[in-house]
Amino acid sequence: MTPLQIVFIITAATTLGAAVMVVSARNLVHAALWLVVSLFGVAVVFVLLNAGFLAVAQVIIYIGAIAILMIFAIMLTRRIYSESSPQVNRNWGLAAILSIALFAGLAWMLGSWSGFSTALPEMSPRADPLRELGLALVSPDFYVIPFEVASVLLLAALVGAIMVAWERK
Amino acid sequence: MISLSWYLILSAALFCIGLFGVLARKNAVAILMGVELMLNAVNVNLVAFWRYRTPEMIAGQAFAIMVFAVAAAEVAVGLALIISIYRRRNTVVADEIDMLKL
Asked: Which residue of B has its CA nearest to A52?
C-alpha cells in the first residue's frame, strides 16, 4: 500500500465518520463542529486531487463562512437544541433505508461502468491548473457568463437575506 | 495507486449520509447541514472526474466554483429564513413550520 493510499483512507474515514456524527449528534453545536471536521476532510481530498485552489476556497468559504454562520444561527435559535427530545423525526427508519438503498444503487451502477477503475492520468508538467482556471473563469470562450451570473446570484442572496431577516419595529 | 473508484465511493457515501440528514433531522439548521454535506459530495465528484477523465480541460473545477457560490447563497438565505421564522413562531422544528397550510 502506498503512502498516498493510506492518507486517502484516513481522510475518507475521518470525513465519513464526522458526517455520520453531523447527522446523528444530539447537540446541534457538536453537529456543527463535526461538520467543520467533515468539510476539512473534503479539503484534504481536493489536495489529493491536485486542486489546491479549491482546497483553499473550501477552507475559506465553507469552514470560514458557512460553518461559522451555522453556529451563529444555532446560537440565535437556542432552546431547541438543549431539549432532550429526539432530534430525528418519525420517518428516520424510512430515511435510513432510502439512503442505504441509494448508496447500494449508486455503487452497483458505478461498478458496472467501464471507466470505474480509471488509473490516475499523468498531468503534463507544463500544465498549471490554477492559471487555466483563472483564465477560463474570465474568458468569453469559456465561463465568463456563468461566473457573472453567479456573482449576481450572490448579490441577490445578500440583499434577500438582509430583507428576510430584517426586524421591522 | 488510487483509482477513480475510491473517490466515487467516498462521494456516494457522503451524499447518502447527507440525504439521511435532510430526511430525518427535525431541526431546520440540521437539515441545512445535511444539504451542505450533499453539495460537498457533488464537488468531490466534479473534481475527481476532472482529474481522472479530462485533466486538460478545466470544466470540473469551474463547475465546483459555481457550486461554492450557490452553496454560499443558499446558506445565507436559508439561515435568514430560519431566524425570521424563529422570531415569529419561536420554533425551528421543520414539522411545526406550516404557515402555508390552511
From this structure: B61
Here the cell at position A8 is 486517502
CA-CA distances (angstroms) from residue B95 to A117, A130, B28? 43, 45, 9
B84: which chain A residues are within 8 Å (Cβ-Cβ)? 164-165
DSSP B95: G
Domains within chain B, CATH numbers bracketed: 4-96 (1.10.287.3510)
Tell me how far apart the alpha carbons of residues A77 and A99 are, in angstroms, rounded to a whole number: 29
Burial of A119 (0-12, 13-18, 19+ CB in 10 A): exposed
Q: What separation in angstroms does the CA of B26 have from each of A33, A44, A62, A146?
A: 18, 30, 23, 35
Is A89 a domain residue?
no
Rounded to two decimals, what is the model's pTM? 0.88
| Residue A160 lies in domain | 130-169
Question: Cα dist. B83→A35, A59, A76 in Å?
Answer: 20, 25, 7
- A152 at the B interface (CB within 8 A)? no
Which pLDDT band, with edges at 50, 70 and 90, does A79 fall under?
Answer: low
Residue A100 counted as domain residue: no
* Closest residue, chain A, to B13 (C-alpha): A103
In a domain, A105, yes or no: no
